[in-house]
Give the backbone structure.
Amino acid sequence: MPSPLAPLAAALTVALGLLAAPGSDAPTVERRAPAPAARHVVAISLDGLNPHAVRRLGRSRAPVLHRLRGRGAGTLNARTEREQTVTLPNHTGMVTGRRIDAHHRGHGVTWNDARLRPRTVEAAAGHPVRSVFTVVHAAGRRTAVFAAKQKFTLFERSWPNAVDRTVIRPDNAQLVRMARRDLARRERAFTFVHLSLPDIVGHESGFMSRAYLDAVARVDRLVGRLVATVRDDRGLRGSTAVVLTSDHGGLGDGHSDPTRASSYRVPFLAWGAGVAHGAGLYRLNRDYADPGRRRTTYGDARQPVRNGDVANLAIDLLGLPAVRGSEHDSAQDLDVR
Ligand SMILES: [Zn+2]
């Protein structure tokens, strides 16, 4: 049924069109670019978060992740990169929007340690690789990276002019304190926060073990502090979107087998400015497909939501064009509202 306001809206559009004389510089309704959904995006990656842990902990022990899901748009059945389910290759996918395999225009980061050679993502790929950082910077905006593992210095080496600040601190609580301070004091369009607790404890005590679930509950509280800053700070409130995902899951002694569902299944949640209130991402996006338990390929006509969608979703929310050369959500058609 048409809205009762539709005739009024149509009349207004006509009236505004008449007011703008032909050839005049007066802006018309049609010509004005839509305002960006968000002024700031905070991307959070929880290293080694098996989405089953969120279900297992329930609302009482993982209240923040449940709230982000309930009051935002999300899925607990997103996918990692297909080739590998380890940290650095997947995080490089998140910030570049590319698959891993350099022979298929991927980013080429196949290692997962703090080595200094290859020195940059571009050197690994053998072709130019742009990122969310370069797009944001080209628009005159600022970025920051807060990460709990040394290997993330790859990003500032790869895009030295586009990553304005990098902080590496293994202590997750300290890292979150520093990120909160930076969010409140600096004007950043894009902030990347990587927290390692679930992965660290998963390797020590087993993924999905009791100690691991405790670590996920702890990291839930840390995410809560970041969200509190976004919610309470005057410069961020109402103009900030949070995108949260993971590099890989994990079960038992690890996560490095990319053929296991426990490795390749990750959460993907969006919340805040420009994001629907309580929506499933696969319901919002009929051009994407919930993969069930399947290990997906990049050739599937309808793609799953991937952790590699972070880059182009973030800059879409900021009203900026997709990362040149990217693949995941390169049409910026992943809708979060
Ligand atoms: Zn790990």
Observations:
- The two ends are 21 Å apart (CA to CA).
- The mean pLDDT is 93.
- Strands lie at 40-46, 73-79, 143-147, 166-168, 190-195, 240-245, 265-272, 279-280.
- The first helix runs from residue 6 to 19.
